Amino acid sequence: MPDKGHTNVNSLEPYWMPFTNNRQFKSAPRMVVSAKDMHYVTDDGRKLLDGASGMWCVNAGHCRDRIVEAIQQEAATLDYAPSFQWGHPKAFELSSRLAALLPGNLDHVFFGNSGSEAVDTALKIALAYHRQNGEATRTRLIGRERGYHGVGIGGTAVGGISSNRKQFGTLMAGIDHLPHTFNLAENAYSRGQPAWGAHLADDLERLVALHDASTIAAVIVEPVAGSTGVLIPPPGYLNRLREICDRHGILLIFDEVITGFGRIGGAFAADYFGVQPDMITMAKGLTNGTVPMSAVGVSSSIYDTFMAGPAGIELFHGYTYSGHPLACAAGLATLDVYEEDGLFERAKSLAPKWEDAIHSLKGLPHVIDLRNIGLVGAVELEPRDGAPGARTFDVLMACYENGMMVRQTGDTIALCPPLIISESQIDEMITILGDAIRATA
Ligand SMILES: Cc1ncc(COP(=O)(O)O)c(C=O)c1O
Q1: Residues 221 and 290 reside in one and the same domain
Q2: Which atom of ligand 1 is nearest to the CA of 255?
Q3: Ligand 1 atom with minimal separation from the 118 CA
Q4: Which of 308, 340, 372 is the last residue of a domain?
Q5: Which of 5, 35, 96, 193 has the CA that lies 20 to 30 A from 229?
Q6: Is the CB of residue 285 below 6 angstroms from any atom belonging to ligand 1?
């Protein structure tokens, strides 16, 4: 083997870490080596309370026996099965379980491996659906400012976080964006849904007037925008989007990669807000973060349109690992755990305690907003002059030093613990976070 200069197997250099300040990390690594229930363990043997469900994934807590055993057993039974023109029973079983869980007529499921793939799949299904339906001019996709829909070209295009877009040129044509709903002057310190902002959905009418409905395929939004820093929709906002889409024959896609599987207190945010989309994207909590898997829940009317087409392959799309046996086994076991532990109901019943805990941080140095819904919380800190995100990064580090993992995005600290969290662990989280905010003032 040639000596390439970094033969030390423990070198931190070769791994180009995603969405990470590589140089900072490699100068002071934060390593986790194991996890159980509500905690990670670091390489120096410290327990970290998981305030972020890893990355909004581990809704049932870490290394749950039932899920671990299901994966182990499947790996020894059916390690891999092709998904194009072949099937295996667990993919059908998981699809049926998900179809039963999904709201309304979302009775069909297409599998991918990541949230990004679910988003790109949903966007492609929308385009292909209109073409199949004799409306091939409907090719425009509408996202929302500050939206996050993963990192595929499609998801990047409909996404609305400029730092995630600006490095990648102009591949992303034929897209427009709704305004976001963040407004501190109107909504700071709202408990749950903020009162102001439903009218911002009407901007979709403006986009329809500008582009003409005959050019628009779909609108995609996160019902609660997560990665941008937790933006909660005002009451009526999502209903208005639904009404306008219906009026103009536009498909409505809810990206529930974060909000799916109990995070805000129902199986899906669509249930919680009582608004029926045409497709739902999901990932993360689908397998409790264990094996990469995503899915798109698709309405019967979309599916039936394809099935009424010419004989042959109906959709030229899919992944080598769509419906991977290990992921299906993990997904089935995860759904069992959610059901047996009543975790969606648990998130709902803990939400009032959670809300009080989050809002108890009001008045701490540099806190300018607090937001909450279900078991999601956000602390907005005043940015340091000329250094956006620097203050929240210091808070993340202080939390880490004091035994807790949180998510930092821009000037927001996002909290989204596993749904198994106890009331005393909620108090512990708030104490660690409060101390960290004070310490970094
Ligand atoms: C709403 C939403 N969509 C899509 C994605 C992308 O998922 P993945 O990172 O699995 O590709 C994310 C990830 O956080 C997300 O929050």
Answers
A1: yes
A2: 1
A3: 4
A4: 340
A5: 35
A6: no
| CATH code: domain of residue 320 | 3.40.640.10
Q: 56 C-alpha to center of ligand 1: Å? A: 9
Query: Tens digit of pLDDT for each residue in 201-256?
Result: 999 999 999 999 999 999 999 999 999 999 999 999 999 999 999 999 999 999 99
According to DSSP, the residues that pair with 384 across neighbouring strands are 387
Average pLDDT, the chain: 96
Q: Are 53 and 289 in contact (CB under 8 A)?
A: yes
| DSSP letter for each residue of 176-225 | EEEPP---HHHHTT-SSS-SS-GGGGGHHHHHHHHH-GGGEEEEEE-SSB
Please report whether residue 7 resides in a domain.
Answer: no
Instruction: Name the residue at shortest CA distance from atom 7 of ligand 1.
Output: 115
299 and 408 in a single domain? The answer is: no
Assess contact for 111 and 145: CB atoms under 8 A.
Answer: no
Model pLDDT for residues 292-303, shown as the tens digit of each residue: 999 999 999 999
User: Which of ligand 1's atoms lies nearest the C-alpha of 256?
Assistant: 1
Helix (H) or strand (E) holding 151: none
User: Which of 149, 279, 280, 376, when mutated, tests ligand 1's pocket best, judged by the most ligand atoms within 8 Å of its CB?
Assistant: 149
Q: Both 283 and 331 in a single domain?
A: yes
**Is any atom of ligand 1 closer than 6 Å to the C-beta of 414?**
no
The parent domain of residue 418 ranges over 22-60+342-439
Separation of alpha carbons 408 and 283, rounded Å: 20
Domain check: are 183 and 93 in the same one?
A: yes
Same domain, 204 and 243: yes
Q: 116 in ligand 1 pocket by Cβ < 6 Å?
A: yes
Ligand 1: atom nearest CA of 150 is 6
How many structural domains does the chain have?
2
Q: Hey, which of 258, 263, 296 would you mutate to test ligand 1's pocket, going by the most ligand atoms within 8 Å of its Cβ?
A: 258
Pair 43, 73 in one domain? no
Asked whether the whole model's pTM tops 0.90, one would answer yes
User: pLDDT category, 350, cuts 50, 70, 90?
Assistant: very high
